[in-house]
Design a protein that fits this description.
Layout: H1 2-16, H2 24-57, H3 61-66, H4 71-106, E1 109-118, E2 121-130
Antiparallel strand pairs: 1-2
């Protein structure tokens, strides 16, 4: 009796669970969002870096030696550093975008062949099928 109750409870629990299914559109949407984010980081970082370098070029070598602790010089160096960090932060976003795009391609529709009986012989016919490719080894 106890085992029957445990099995019934497990079946009830399993029937309530469902798997989350991702589609081609979901992965492509994620890929596009990551790509846009990466390009925003690259563009913003490049603009900040260029602005910082332009401001740094306004200082002469004598002024740099004299104003080692000048707040404007420190802010300009911080701007260049921030821009470079932002451009570097875009790299993981490009990598994630590429991975999601590869997952979406693995879920793409591909034509499959099926053998159908007809008039005493088997014929092959193409039909659209959803293909899922799992890479178990690297």
């Amino acid at each position: 009796m106890k085992s029957t109750m445990i099995i019934a409870f497990c079946l009830l629990f399993v029937s309530c669970c469902f798997a989350q299914k991702r589609t081609y559109e979901d992965y492509m949407r994620k890929s596009r969002k990551r790509t846009v984010g990466a390009w925003v980081f690259v563009g913003t970082g490049a603009a900040i870096t260029a602005g910082g370098i332009a401001l740094l070029s306004g200082y002469s070598n004598e002024a740099r030696d004299y104003y080692d602790t000048d707040p404007e010089l420190i802010l300009d160096v911080a701007a260049v550093t921030t821009g470079v960090i932002l451009m570097g932060a875009s790299i993981p976003f490009f990598i994630m975008s590429h991975r999601y795009k590869k997952k979406a391609i693995n879920l793409a529709f591909k034509p499959e062949k099926i053998q159908l009986p007809g008039l005493g012989k088997f014929t092959r016919q193409l039909y659209p099928a959803l293909s899922l490719k799992l890479n178990l080894g690297r």
